[in-house]
Amino acid sequence: MARPAPDAPRPTAAAVLDDAVRSLAPDTDANRLVARIEEGAAPRSVFATLALEQHHVISADRVSFQHLARRADGDPPVADFFDLLAQGEALAMKQLAGLADACELSEREIAEYQPRPGCQAYPSYAARLALGGEPTDVAIALTANFAAWGRCCAVVETAMRDRYAFPEEACGFFGFFAGPAPDVGERARAAVQHGLDTGQAEPATAHRYGRLLQAYELMFWNSVAD
User: Fold this and answer.
1) Of 27, 38, 93, 129, which sits with the fewest C-beta atoms within 10 Å of its C-beta?
2) pLDDT tens digits, residue range 174-185?
3) Which residues form the Thiaminase-2/PQQC domain (predicted)?
């Protein structure tokens, strides 16, 4: 009698996240704005638009992450991950003020600005995931997206200094996301490992979420470029 095949080893959280980052990496050539900024070819006015649009993105994403943390209340490692993300959005909003000041945006201009639909597709989808997505799968998708977003922010931060001569305070927002975030990585691994151990994580579903997040982020950049 043939012996039953041994159970396949379960993937680790690190392996699942690495696979998501690799598999969902976007086509950098499709991002028209970051390439122009890197070359110094984008008009300086795009930075004001970025600041205005991000004011809405950050506000919305913070609420989404807070809601995901509440939904994951019975799964502490997952809730901790989203709590940290929500705290990060609050810090990012403070950094964004430096960019807004450098672009000479008044409080009235920020309050009355009408955001572009293509720029707000990302936070709208993030809100949809916050309402109905499996939190562990959302954590996987966001980790892949953050890797791509961070690379773009690093390019923009460098160009702001080297090509556009922005002051240090103006570069802080993009520098915040460009720099390493070991706490976020550690909590992401803990959240995903919990999801794998409890059977809540479905990497295939996470990749579906992630593909859309990457597409909507690309839409954000290109909508500013248009």
Assistant:
1) 27
2) 999 998 788 999
3) 33-161
Total number of domains in the chain = 1
- Structural domain for 134, as ranges: 13-18+43-225
* Tokens standing for residue 213: 């997040």
Structural domain contains residue 29: no
Whole-Å CA distances, 11 to 123, 158, 160, 183, 197: 30, 37, 40, 22, 10
The token pair that represents 151 in the structure block? 């690379």
Q: Which phi-psi region, left, alpha or beta, contains residue 83 (left: φ > 0; alpha: ψ -120 to 50)?
A: alpha
Q: How far apart are CA 201 and CA 224, in angstroms?
A: 34
Distance CA 51, CA 97 (A): 8
| Digit-coded pLDDT (tens) for 2-54 | 444 456 678 899 999 999 999 999 998 999 999 999 999 999 999 999 999 99
**Cβ-based neighbours of 86, under 8 Å, separated by 6 or more:** 62, 65, 66, 69
Alpha-carbon distances, residue 226 vs 26, 127, 157, 198 (angstroms): 19, 25, 21, 45
Closest CA to 151 of 176, 126, 177, 172: 177
Q: Is pTM beyond 0.70 here?
A: yes
If DSSP codes are grouped into helix, strand and coil, which group holds residue 18? helix
| SS percent in the chain: helix, strand, coil, step 5 | 80, 0, 20
